[in-house]
Inverse folding.
């Protein structure tokens, strides 16, 4: 889960990191109230994605009127597919210098890496490319966290020795987001040194591990559900599905991320475009299949559904039962091509056949078939008549 | 041995493993020590199981909150091949587990969130269905579970049997890497051909390509899934700072091509390129 800036700052503040005073505003009137409380403010769009500044999502307001206008412009605007639900009005800082500090998971090292650079600000990626040596790095021991001397070394390596004490304290507190919140990435960029010499978080990004949500139920309760994301993704999340909306017209259900991704690749290769990525995962049960199909059919752009299930831990009979039940329950009229194989596939295929769905064994032919059916100008007989079973397709196994 | 042998998945897949002839000598299920399940003696702890039976490999089928401890328990008890099937383990737990395993250099961890491994006709640990496999000279290593079955099935249908199929798993923090497994295949006399099934994200594929580029006796085909997947909506810069442009399907395919490895554009092309 990616937290919004104001949420991330609330968390960092609770960990002992200094943040500027700020006010959340859902309306222009609230932004004006924020200005009256704080004086000159930065009015910042709250979206879980980078690049909002360049998209016009951050405006400085020196008067109440400017605060109102900024909020009017920003609230509701679309930034990279996210509708801005609210703005954060934050006391403007008098910036002396900008530092970059953050941590993330280094997949190659199978470890967390702490990063610190004196060259903070929006060009940090360019800095990383052009002068990687100006970004100091530390791999803390994951059981005990960074030691004081390691942090001192990190700070001096970054050329920030004169700020050793405040920086070490901030980094130590930032790191606590790992053991205490299962954070995967946290970033303060810029970490601002003000003209008065305070060190304070100018921006904050925080992503926590959804696999660890059971350890941190409070986080989801407190911070989830603020952003209006894609409606199908929201619905899918409610139903516990791994689902990503795409902009094509073929609904995809697969089990396993790799198979699901390769199914998208095949659909594109066959000339179609996927409407979604939906991984029903290992051990997919009947109700999961029905949920997946229900969410996909909510999208009016969908003109056909391709289901590609190759089972290991997933049992073919359960998948088939779920699919037949779901199709009947949802009164599905669109073309449906099913490719089912793996553990208990014989039982699964038998169930499909008994219910008028001919299962196939080859993903490429199945992809071509669904693209053909979904892109037909006139509806197929099955699509036109809800009383008929879903579109049948017989496929030969390549040999 | 099987950790979590009395659970639903543990039971189901233990039976499948036994059906192939895998010598399952023990299982664990705390509180059920002293009983027998599927004809296998059940112990409270891995150490007890190892002491009594000499088990040297373990398949882990326990839920995510308990799986990290199960992996470390297996390593501490002297198990040398630990296969963790469990999906959904928090990443920070896996980072701590990986650090713990440094103290047990003879323990190899496969996974987590992986389908395990199978040597067709001989034995398996995990959940790869035997029916898609056939004995032969092709080594298959993959990050994806189901895509592994897809490719294994296509190879078998074409008469290209497999020496061993290894699923390394799709999590960001893993045990054995592509490189580790490819090094093992290089030393395996039963293997003359190799199929590498990668996917977008991370740079394990790039590292594997680098290894293969230095010279290999294996005739190799690589496939990368996710070439049409949309780029994730990135928030911060930290990921880009440490990984740059690696991780895309393009970068991975290019790395394999530069290493002289044939790259299949669809899974259906793999068989033709391997012959």
């Amino acid at each position: 889960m990616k937290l919004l800036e104001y949420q991330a700052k609330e968390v960092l503040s609770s960990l002992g990191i200094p943040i500027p005073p700020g006010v959340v505003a859902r309306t222009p009137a609230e932004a004006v109230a924020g200005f009256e409380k704080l004086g000159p403010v930065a009015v910042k769009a709250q979206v879980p994605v980078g690049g909002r500044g360049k998209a016009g999502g951050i405006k400085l307001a020196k008067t109440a009127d400017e605060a109102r206008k900024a909020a009017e412009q920003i609230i509701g605007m679309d930034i990279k597919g996210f509708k801005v639900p609210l703005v954060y009005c934050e006391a403007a800082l008098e910036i002396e210098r900008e530092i970059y500090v953050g941590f993330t998971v280094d997949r190659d090292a199978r470890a967390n890496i702490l990063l610190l650079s004196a060259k903070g600000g929006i060009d940090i990626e360019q800095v990383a490319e052009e002068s990687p040596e100006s970004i100091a790095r530390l791999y803390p021991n994951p059981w005990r966290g960074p030691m004081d001397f390691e942090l001192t070394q990190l700070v001096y390596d970054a050329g920030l020795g004169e700020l050793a004490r405040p920086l070490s304290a901030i980094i130590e507190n930032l790191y606590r987001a790992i053991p205490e919140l299962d954070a995967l990435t946290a970033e303060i960029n810029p970490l601002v040194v003000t003209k008065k010499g305070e060190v304070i978080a100018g921006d904050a990004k925080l992503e926590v591990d959804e696999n660890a949500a059971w350890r941190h139920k409070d986080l989801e309760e407190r911070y989830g559900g603020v952003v209006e994301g894609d409606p199908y993704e929201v619905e899918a999340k409610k139903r516990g599905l791994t689902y990503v909306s795409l902009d094509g017209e073929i609904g995809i259900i697969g089990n396993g991320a790799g198979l699901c991704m390769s199914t998208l690749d095949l659909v594109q290769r066959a000339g179609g475009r996927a409407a979604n990525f939906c991984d029903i995962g290992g051990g997919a049960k009947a109700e999961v299949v029905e949920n997946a199909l229900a969410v996909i059919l909510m999208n009016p752009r969908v003109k056909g559904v391709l289901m590609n299930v190759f089972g290991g831990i997933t049992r073919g009979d359960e998948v088939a039962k779920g699919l037949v039940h779901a199709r009947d329950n949802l009164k599905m009229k669109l073309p449906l091509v099913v490719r089912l194989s793996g553990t208990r596939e014989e039982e699964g295929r038998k169930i499909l056949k008994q219910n008028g769905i001919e299962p196939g064994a080859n993903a490429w032919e199945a992809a071509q078939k669904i693209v053909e059916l979904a892109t037909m100008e006139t509806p197929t007989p099955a699509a036109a008549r809800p009383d008929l079973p879903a579109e049948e397709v017989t496929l030969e196994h390549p040999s | 041995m099987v950790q979590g042998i009395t659970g639903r998945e543990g039971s189901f897949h233990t039976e499948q493993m036994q059906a192939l002839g895998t010598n399952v000598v023990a299982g664990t299920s705390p509180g059920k020590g002293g009983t027998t399940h599927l004809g296998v003696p059940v112990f409270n702890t891995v150490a007890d199981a190892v002491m009594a039976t000499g088990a040297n490999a373990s398949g882990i089928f326990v839920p995510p909150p308990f799986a990290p401890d199960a992996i470390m328990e297996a390593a501490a008890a002297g198990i040398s091949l630990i296969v963790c099937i469990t999906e959904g383990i928090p990443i920070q737990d896996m980072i701590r587990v990986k650090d713990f395993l440094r103290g047990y250099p003879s323990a190899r961890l496969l996974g987590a969130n992986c389908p395990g491994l199978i040597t067709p006709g001989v034995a398996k640990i995990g959940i790869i269905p035997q029916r898609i496999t056939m004995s032969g000279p092709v080594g298959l290593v993959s990050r994806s579970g189901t895509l592994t079955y897809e490719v294994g099935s296509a190879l078998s249908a074409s008469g290209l049997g497999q020496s061993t199929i290894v699923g390394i798993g799709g999590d960001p923090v893993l045990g054995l890497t592509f490189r580790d497994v490819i090094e093992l295949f290089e030393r395996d006399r039963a293997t003359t051909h190799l199929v590498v099934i990668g996917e977008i994200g991370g740079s394990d594929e790039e590292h594997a390509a680098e290894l293969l580029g230095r010279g290999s006796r294996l005739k190799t085909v690589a496939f990368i899934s996710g070439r049409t997947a949309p780029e994730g909506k990135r928030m911060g810069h930290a990921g880009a700072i440490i990984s740059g442009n690696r991780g895309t399907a393009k970068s991975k395919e290019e790395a394999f091509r530069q290493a002289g490895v044939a790259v299949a554009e669809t899974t259906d092309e793999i068989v033709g390129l391997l012959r």
Remarks:
- Residues 116-274 of chain B form a domain with the Rossmann fold fold (CATH 3.40.50.261).
- Chain B touches chain A through 71 residues (CB under 8 Å).
